[in-house]
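Bench notes, bay 3.
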Amino acid sequence: MRKVELLFDTIRSPYDIAHIIQIAQSIDCVVYTAGKNSVPFNHHKVIGKIRSWNIKGDISEIHYNTFDEAVYDLKGMGKFLIGTSGNADTLFYQLDFPEEKNIVLVFGTEASGLNQSKQELMDIIVKLPMNESKVDFLTLPVAVSAMAYELYRQYNFSRRGY
C-alpha cells in the first residue's frame, strides 16, 4: 500500500495543524513540514484540539529547517512533487499520477500559498476546480482534505473497482 505524503511550508495555525493531523491519521500518511517559524505538531494548542477529537496513535512530522532543504531531500529520494496554487493551469483531477514514483503533495503557507520561486521547484503545479465567481480560495485544511483523499483513493481503491 502506497502512502500519501504531504509537505507544508511554514504552517503556523494550530487549528489548521490539528485538521491536517486528523486527515493524516485517517489515511495513515507521512507529513513533512518546513520552516523555522512552523508550529510543531506537539504544540499544546494542537495537542489539546486533537485530544478533544479523540484522535489516536503517534502524531509526528518530519521537519526541515527550510523549504528548499525539504524539496531537495525529497527529490533526492526520487519523489514527484505536486505543488498547489489557485493560479495553476492544470486541474488536480486531470493529472495522471506517475506510477513509478512516490508523490508528495506540497502546500504553501496558510496566508499566501506557494510563491513563484517555490512553485518553480515543483515537478508540476495543480489546482482544485471550484466556482471562482463564488469562492476566491480554499482554506488549507479543505484543500488538503480534497487532494489527500483523492490520492489515497487512487493509490488504494481505483484498481479494485471502487
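Next record in the batch:
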Amino acid sequence: MTGSVVQILESWNYLVVIALMMGGLFIVISQNNLVKKLVGLAIFQTSVFIFYISVGKMAGGTAPILMDGADRLYSNPLPHVLILTAIVVGVATTALGLALILRIHAAFGSIEDDEVLAMKAEAAEPRARRGDDVTGGGA
C-alpha cells in the first residue's frame, strides 16, 4: 500500500496536469458565457504547458552548459524553448478571442452563446421566408 502512495506522490505533477486539464475542459463545456469559455481554454492550455515543462526536466539534470572534464547529466532545453514560444502564441490567441468577444457583444448585445445563436437564427429567418437564395443562383 505504501508503495502506491509513494508512486502517487512522485508523480504529483501529472495529477496537477490532469486536474487542470479536466477543470478547463469542464469550464468550456458547461459555461454559456464566452469569456468564461475563453478562461477555460486558457486553463486547459496552461495544463499542457505544465505537462511539457515537467516532462522536459530530468531528476539530477543541470543546465546544458559544457564544462571541462565534467561528466554530468543535462536536462533537455528544447521543451522549455517550445513552451516559451507556445506561451507567446497563447497570449496572442487569447487576445484575439477577447477582441472577437467584444465584437460579438457590440453586434448582438450579449456574450451568452445561446442568446447569440438565437438572435442569429432570428436574423436569418426573414431571409428564408422571402426566398433569398443562399447559393446566389436564383430561379
